[in-house]
Amino acid sequence: MSEKTSPGQLTHEEELELAIREIRERVMARYPSGLWHGLELPDFTPVLEARDQANAKVAAIGRVNPRPGGLLNGLIQGVKQTIARSLGWFVRDQVDFNYAMVRSLDSVLEGLNSINRTLKTIPPKFEPPMEEIRRETAELKDIRSNWLVWRREWEEKLGRNEVQFLRAVADLQAAYAQRTAVLEQRFEERVVAQHRDFEGALERSNFAMQQRFWNELEKVRVEYERIIYAEIRSVRQKPASVVAGGSSDASIDIDWVHFANKFRGDAPKIQKHFEGYVSRFEGCERVLDIGCGRGEFLSLLKARGVAGVGVDLYEENVSLLQAQGLEARRANVFEYLAEEGPGSFDGIFCAQVIEHLPPAEVWRLVQACSVALKTGGVIVFETPNPECLAIFATHFYVDPSHTRPVPPALLCFYLEEAGFGRIDVQRFAPAYEERPELNALPASMKESFFGGLDYSAFAKKL
Fold it and tell me: Cβ distance 427 to 382 under 8 Å?
């Protein structure tokens, strides 16, 4: 039975119930939950319980569990407490970290509860119009159902239209391809016919033009050959002996320029061959070229800065060289050397000349050159080498103006007798290089009888 109270006084049960209600209200105010305008607020009670459990565990770190009384248990407890106190420095950071985590969790809970409290204080005027939303949702559902039906019908109609369109496009494409093929075939036939007609007309016209051209060209060619032949024979160089009383070729009336190009070589070839002689005349002040001909050696001297003068019997050669800016004289070599006087030159070059002279004139020419040279002057003779038997079969007698070859030993003897020293003979252009069949001969025989086709004799006046 409850105690009786006076009017206006609460019983103990009522006071207890009132106190519980106040505590609940304060808790609900601090940790609000339940519904808010139809929306359920989150309940943080499980989080609170987990926080309390974490606090209990944090407080238990470093404590020793109790044991029953007694001397042994007391001793064990003392040892355990001593160990726990000695390990306090080790677990201190862990305890601090756990307390910090619990405080951070309290802060998060407080923030979430603040959000719930704030939501609770929002007045009802912000309550969304749920009826209107439901009505609009129903309308949207009805629209959606109708849209699905319409979409299905529209897709079917679109598919039928697409099939019809593709069929029409295919028919148009087939008709276009057929029409294009017909037009292309007709065009090709017309082009082929026109091309055939054009080629026929072009061939006929070309043939007629060619006939007229070749007829006219034949007339022009015959006329020009007649004119050129007459002109060339009047202006080209003609061979003769470089000295008076020369060879017996004066009566041979042939094209000697064409003869030289055919059997000796053109001017560039001879000039390249003469390049090997230019170094012998370095330091010379005045060099004489006997039988200068086309002037290949004079051109090389001029390019090296050496003063050179040529002497030749024919005016055509001399005029040609003077037109090129080279110094040349038309004269008999013996008369010219006598006119120049002793010691007029410090170099004399005489290539492919002495084989045109009678034997007595060769010795006379060597003597005249010795007089015309200064002491220490250089002289060079080039002539076919009679030691090589091949020249008599292939080279020497091809030239009808040749009289007889001059052996190297005889020319060296003439040079010694005329007062020359330091005589050097060099043979070049071996016959076995020009005639490979000679390589089958023994080496000694090949070198002795089929060596150089030509030779050069170098000497200095003592």
Answer: no
Query: Where in the chain are the domains?
Result: 12-127, 129-235, 256-461
When pLDDT is cut at 50, 70 and 90, the band that residue 245 belongs to is very low
CA dihedral 308, 341, 461, 426 (to 10 degrees): 40
- pLDDT mean over 21-42: 60
Fold observed for domain 256-461: Rossmann fold (3.40.50)
| Residue 336 neighbours by CB distance under 10 Å | 19
Q: Residue 385: helix, strand or coil by DSSP? A: coil
Is the Cβ–Cβ distance between 299 and 324 less than 8 Å?
Answer: yes
Choice among 51-55, 315-319, 337-341 with the minimum mean pLDDT? 51-55
Q: What does the pLDDT read at residue 239?
A: 40
- pLDDT at residue 40 is higher than 80: no
**Encoded tokens for 279:** 């170094």
pLDDT tens digits, one per residue of 107-125 = 777 777 777 677 666 665 5
Token look-up 């309550």 returns: 127
Dihedral angle of Cα 7, 12, 15, 21, to the nearest 10 degrees: -140
For residue 339, what are the contacts with CB-CB under 8 A and spacing of at least 6? Answer: 331
Joined together, the tokens standing for residue 155 give 């897709």
The DSSP bridge partners found for residue 212 are: none
pLDDT band of 46, cuts 50, 70, 90:
confident
Residue 379: other Cβ atoms inside 10 A: 26
Q: Which residue type, as a one-letter code, is found at position 451?
A: G
The 3-class secondary structure across 295-350, one letter per residue, is CHHHHHHHHCCCCEEEEECCHHHHHHHHHCCCEEEECCHHHHHHHHCCCCEEEEEE
415-439 pLDDT, tens digit per residue, is 999 999 899 999 888 877 777 777 7
Q: What is the DSSP letter of 419?
A: T
Q: Is the pTM of this model over 0.70?
A: no
Instruction: Calculate the dihedral angle through the C-alpha atoms of 121, 122, 124, 130, rounding to the nearest 10 degrees.
Output: -130
What is the spatial distance between Cα 169 and Cα 252, in angstroms, rounded to a whole number?
A: 96
DSSP, collapsed to helix, strand or coil, labels residue 373 as strand
Q: 399, 380 in Cβ contact below 8 A?
A: no
Please state, in angstroms and rounded to a whole number, the distance separating the CA atoms of residues 329 and 333: 10
Say if CB 417 and CB 368 are below 8 A apart: no
Secondary structure class of 287 (helix, strand, coil): strand
CB atoms within 10 A of CB 135: 11
